[in-house]
Amino acid sequence: MCELLGMSANVPTDICFSFSGFLHRGGGTGPHRDGWGIAFYEEGGYREFRDPHPSVESPIARLIRDYPIKSEIVISHIRQANVGSVRLANTHPFVREMWGQPWCYAHNGQLTGWQALPLRIYQPVGDTDSEHAFCWLMGELRRVFPDPPDEREGFWRHLHRLCEQLRELGVFNLLLADGEYLYTFCSTKLAHITRRAPFGPANLSDAEMKVNFAEHTTPDDVVSVMATEPLTDNEDWVRMTPGELLVWREGEIYARFKT
To answer: Is the pTM of this model over 0.90?
Structure first.
């Protein structure tokens, strides 16, 4: 099954350390050899890199590991294909426009009966259950909220209900972002950690690498990282509960919804 990596921070922050461990799971310490991708929101813009080859062997992945792109929100994904062929069109993350903003999405899991989900505004480019579910999800959100809502909580509650509907079709762990908020939904497995002052050392589980965050941060920095499985072996990660949706903003949990 695929794996997810996300980040929400209150200052532009690079994800080089976490990504260094994560990319090893794409064909090195893990079986996820069927492509990888990463998306960054920065300075009001959006950029992404996708590659249908194993991340552990990818020159593009090594570039991301070594190039400190500063971002407030990051979504990354490594793929173990179960529905759809191994090709660029089926490689996460996927992106669609809503309200003039790029919405980025990555999914971990497998769904049944997904072909019956009616598509309204958005259509998939590839042939995965993940992208079809994304197009359905975005279409349902836009149908109920054709314009940005004045009151966000109602929108978030509706997003939670839609995620629950998809969870009824199988495993649906989600990362979704709009440039301001990052959404994480847990169907079976998703963990997170928030780093703030006083910062300390961290050791990667999948690579011989450690860092002392106190040397690279200020006392005001808040950085939260989410992953399918914890990326470090000396920190206390928090595991989400099935059916839980977290809304992140500037590194903090802004809202929480449970089944």
So the answer is: yes
